Amino acid sequence: MASSEVDQKFLGKAAKAVEHENPLLASVLYKILGLSINLSHQLVKAKKQRRPDGTPTSAQLDLSFHIIWLSREGLVLLEQYVVPMVGAYTELKVLAYKLRASFYHIFVLFHNTPPVSSMGVNTPDPQNTPQSRLDKGKGVATDDGSAPSSAKPSRNFEGGPVGPPPGFGPESPSAFLLKPGDYLPIAHQYFKEAAELADKILWGSHSLRLSVKTEYAAFLYECVHDFEGSRKLAKETVAQVYDATEGIDNDMFNDACELVTVLGKMMKRGLNSSNKNPASSTGSQPPARTEKGEPSAPPGMI
């Protein structure tokens, strides 16, 4: 995500490289770097606090609010000050596109309507909200204050409870931070743009390119629920790494090795459960909980 160590390394390098020629851009990049480091700690904490039943505690709500706020502030800085200035840079342009997709990835995980992940702060279901006010357990209170009647109604009404009109239902608890909505399509579009740009201007073993593809594969699996597409992307990316002939320094080599290892696990992610339940391989429903030995989510990627 926007909190991955590879992204943070490139943020620091980019900020230092442009300090003299563009101090404003450098200062914003340093701010995003600090925000990213903070965000990485919050995301790890959120993953550890996730409950099996998906019911958030007050502490989890506060943590989710903090994550959404950090992501929102990072996106504002990125879109207003970084994206318009990266035309003349190569790696920084890819990084900016990737970070934009990453921030929207977090919105999808924690703030999407309808929810696509158990990490999110879910909006209450209007059909489950009380339709009538109860008067201290004595029955349904009437508008004129008269006593409730114990007689059954003489008419039978068909149909279920009527929910509020569109736009008047209960809002997400985090609506005060960010406008509720379905962020999945725009996040997917930004991941496609970042991946296409990385393929165009970075070589196959470049660690920033691998960071883009690793999070994109995680997004396909966890949010889009395109399990086969996620595994295919991971497999193709690993193959392109082995086909690359360009030289890389030791630091980038170590990062590339780590990301290739993660991608190798993602190539097999969900296959154990899909063998038992063929429907899951089509993306029609999320896979069951893993058995022992199935890989976990990539580092920094919920």
TrEMBL record:
Against InterPro entries, the record matches this protein to:
14-3-3_dom_sf
Protein species of origin: Podospora pseudoanserina
Q: Could you tell me which residues belong to the region Disordered?
A: 119-171, 271-302
Residue ranges under compositional bias (Polar residues)? 119-132, 271-287
Domain of life from the UniProt record: Eukaryota
What is the name attached to this protein's record? 14-3-3 domain-containing protein
- Coiled-coil intervals: none
